[in-house]
Write a structure and sequence with these properties.
single chain; about 240 residues; mainly alpha; 9 helices; about 50% helix
Length: about 240
């Protein structure tokens, strides 16, 4: 049965909507409920839900949602829904009490330790796969030093990382925390900031959209080496660079 609710934090809501009008706040809540019911939504669905308020509210509200191709979703809400789902499952298992489990439940119980050990590996905290992998490594390192992050701590860490300027900066911040066995993440000093990796240097027509490297609206294959300069162009059809006008 689908969970009928998700956790709501008034303090976070006030901080995240303080510059919105009452109309925008109402529309924002409507879109969160839409995501809760449908997992994600398209711009067309948002337009249908917001109706006459769409043109006024959407330019502001779309910044609150991650755009993954044609769909939109709020990362924080996804985390809250997943956290509540796992909590409800743990309550259900604990509710068995001293009842004798059947064979299926015994198999689930045998599988549980491995499942709990690997639970972070299946979660997507960020769209950028490299950033997501480093963040999971950071969480695993906290377990190794016997200071695992709680669900609430993970939420706050994701919010904190999203305030940093770009994914490369976020990755360097996490790597520094892993190296020093820190439980928190800190802004980098100027001396700590490394030059961008070659594959992260943007070429003509390129840009990062929600951590994904794009060229003229199309995703560039990971690991492709750009050659910055006005005479280098990206051949979208052949997925490679060429030199010339």
């Amino acid at each position: 049965m689908k969970d009928p609710a998700f956790l709501f934090y008034p303090g976070d809501w006030m901080g995240g909507t303080q510059w919105m009008t009452f109309e925008q706040k109402g529309c924002y809540m409507e879109l969160l409920i839409l995501q809760f019911n449908c997992s994600e939504f398209t711009e067309a669905q948002a337009k249908q839900v917001l109706s006459i308020c769409f043109d006024v509210a959407w330019p502001m509200l779309k910044q609150k949602f991650i755009n993954d191709g044609e769909i939109y979703y709020n990362e924080r809400l996804r985390i809250e829904i997943d956290k509540r789902k796992r909590f409800s499952e743990s309550r259900r298992i604990n509710g068995l009490g001293n009842k004798q489990p059947d064979k299926k439940q015994k198999a689930q119980a045998k599988h549980m330790p491995k499942h709990m050990e690997d639970e972070n590996k299946d979660l997507n905290y960020f769209i950028n796969t490299e950033l997501n992998s480093v963040f999971i490594s950071y969480l695993e390192n906290r377990k190794k030093i016997k200071k695992p992050a709680t669900d609430r701590a993970i939420e706050l860490l994701v919010i904190k990382l999203n305030k940093f300027p770009n994914d490369e900066y976020r990755i360097q911040t996490l790597e520094k925390s892993i190296t020093n066995n820190w439980t928190d993440i800190y802004e980098l000093k100027n001396s700590d900031i490394q030059a961008p990796k070659i594959k992260d240097v943007l070429g003509p027509g390129e840009e990062y959209i929600n951590g994904v490297r794009m060229c003229l609206g199309k995703i560039i294959p990971p690991g492709t080496e750009p050659r910055p300069g006005s005479l280098y162009k990206w051949d979208i059809d052949k997925n490679k660079w060429y030199y010339g006008n």
